[in-house]
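Worked problem 6 (solution included).
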Amino acid sequence: MRFGRLTLAAAALLLLMATASVPAGTPLSRTEGQALSSDAFEPRGAAPRPAVQRPHHEPPFGAFVGSWDDHIPQIGQYAQWLGDANLQVGHTYLAGNSWADVEGEPVVLGMWSQWRLADPFRVLVLGVPMLVPSEANVPDGEVARLLGQGARGDFDRHFLKLAYRLVALGGADTVLTLGWEMNGVTYTHRCKPDPAAWKAYWRRIVTVMRSVPGQRFRFDFTPNRGLDAIPWTRCYPGDDVVDIIGMDSYDQPAGGTFDDYVREPYGLQDQVEFAARHGKPVSYPEWGLFRNGDNPEYVQRMVEWMRTHDTAYQTVTDYCPHGFFQCDRNPRSSARFRELMSGSKGASSTGPETAKPARP
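Solution. The predicted structure is:
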């Protein structure tokens, strides 16, 4: 459903506040106190494992179906395909070609925010790049320099403008997967070139965005599953600036099994135990098929995993080769996903507090 642009224009006056200044100092001094003392987890059995919460509700779920506002109707089509399941999570990304992209296109942000506001138990998840251009094979030395600039506040104004826009347009409780997959090599906002600067920069962005009146943002720290280019624990910026500990988890490498994904260093088990130690729920903003083709066992095990851990939300990446609805390459996995998710009611108004889309 498209909303009138005059409705969005009415909020534009609030956006003028985005030119407000940001305090020169941000509370970065707690970073080291929040950091882990080692890159590695304790060997299995070396210390008591933390209790991992197991919710008694269906985690809010959805799918990434496309970034622009004209993809929103596909959420309804997806729900119908799943037997009128209650898809409560809308997932989109900001483009990272320029800082104007990171500030957010008002019409697109407005349409997604209006979709979220149509149901109090919906969740809007927004991928936010930390540096631009986001995917440009920027050398490590230049990445380190840019991270240092960010930590000093050179890019504050762009994130301040994004925060004001989201609040003005109705997205005050958006979940932000800020700098997602930072432990990999795909994005300019990767952590490995300077982990200390990366953590300081994350903390600065969160502080800037939380300074906007009316915001109730949740910040989701979302690495790739596994070791990748750097242990993701080295990038963790601190409990006071992280609300959810996510993980992007695709069916790879070739020949991998779900048990491998659970047990590997920095894999699914390490994620849920790390989150439990830090008192955070987990999430799976990106998951789906990949290197092992049409694999219904992976689908079955992944859905069961998410349903039996403290999962704040999950969104499958639904395009080829990963997905089920918009991709015809995975008929067996598609059938299994429909069997598992059809008619799901999601998190209800009578469900536990953890099922709600935003903090009070």
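Discussion: The domain at 56-341 is CATH 3.20.20.80 (TIM Barrel).
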